[in-house]
Amino acid sequence: MAISPGAIIPGALPDFKIYVATQQGKYALWALDGKRVSSEQLGRLSENGAKEVFVDLEEQFKYEQYLETNLGNILGNQLTPDHEKAEIFSKVSTTVVKVAFETSYGLGTMSAVAIQRTQQLIENALIFIKEAKSLQALAKMIGHDYQTYEHATKVLWFTVAFLQLNQAMWR
């Protein structure tokens, strides 16, 4: 699974292996343990022009948990380009909203875990949206295709409904 180097926070990745693609189209082990990735390694990766690194598909769940847990730090990282932040934000919001809908469908209420995850997502979104360039990156991504637009609309309505039910959170 391809991931953005901008999503890597030194010392915060779970303990999975990270690979880079070689010019021969093969994958070479870049980091044996994600927790041991340093700022210097990321700098060299950037200098070499790497646009993506890879984790094993079996590690996808761990990686998605990592993204959600560290979303605020990723969005606040000044070294990560805004378009990468927008893509990461979209990926995390899709996961959070999907799980919230799937676990609460037909129940008439959201679980405490879904509420907490949604609250954290909204807080991170507000921080990201405060950045002047983030709106450009989000608008470009949303305008990319209808599926993305449809997702953004669903997230908007989900957020409005969540805020309506949790007004005390914002006082």
What would your notes on this structure say?
- The protein is mostly helical and 171 residues long.
- It has seven helices and four strands, in the order βββαβαααααα.
- A two-stranded antiparallel ribbon has the order 1-4. It has a two-stranded antiparallel sheet with strand order 2-3.
- It folds into two domains: 2-58, no CATH class; 70-170, no CATH class.
- A hairpin with a 5-residue loop joins strand 2 and strand 3.
- It has helices at 39-47, 60-69, 71-76, 82-104, 112-130, 132-142, 146-165; strands at residues 2-3, 18-21, 27-31, 53-54.
- It is elongated, with a radius of gyration of 17 Å.
- The longest helix is centred in the middle third of the chain and has 23 residues, at 82-104.
Which sequence of strands runs across the widest sheet?
A: 1-4
Helix content: 55-70%
Largest sheet: 2 strands, antiparallel
- Helices and strands, in order, run as EEEHEHHHHHH
Which geometry do the CA atoms define? elongated
Number of strands: 4
Give unreliable regions as ranges.
none
Helix tally equals 7
Q: How many angstroms does the end-to-end distance come to?
A: 41 Å
**What is the radius of gyration computed over CA atoms, rounded to a whole number of angstroms?**
17 Å
Pairing-aware structural class of the strands and helices? mainly alpha
| Residue share in β-strands | 5-15%
- Overall pLDDT metric: 77
Domain count: the total is 2
